[in-house]
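The material for today's practical consists of a large collection of protein records. There is nothing in a record beyond a sequence line and a structure line. Backbone structure tokens are a discrete shorthand for how the chain folds in space. Nothing more is needed to start thinking about how sequence determines fold. As an example, a complete record with its sequence and its structure tokens follows.
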Amino acid sequence: NTKHTSILNSEEQKALTNLELVEPITIKQVNNAYYRLSKIHHPDKSGGDSSRFNAIKRSRDLLIQKLSKAA
């Protein structure tokens, strides 16, 4: 077994949690998680939560930026 060492800081780790992901991740996985969760938490949906939706969006943006720089 090869142990994966995280290259993410604590804010990026929190973003992973917000998107319900675990490392290692790809841009495609981040986008898929974002779209899945945004459908559930969008403030225009019944039972939607704007603060949760905004956290999901910020998390996606942060992780996409990190992964784009690493590529």
Summary: The mean pLDDT is 91. The first helix runs from residue 10 to 18.
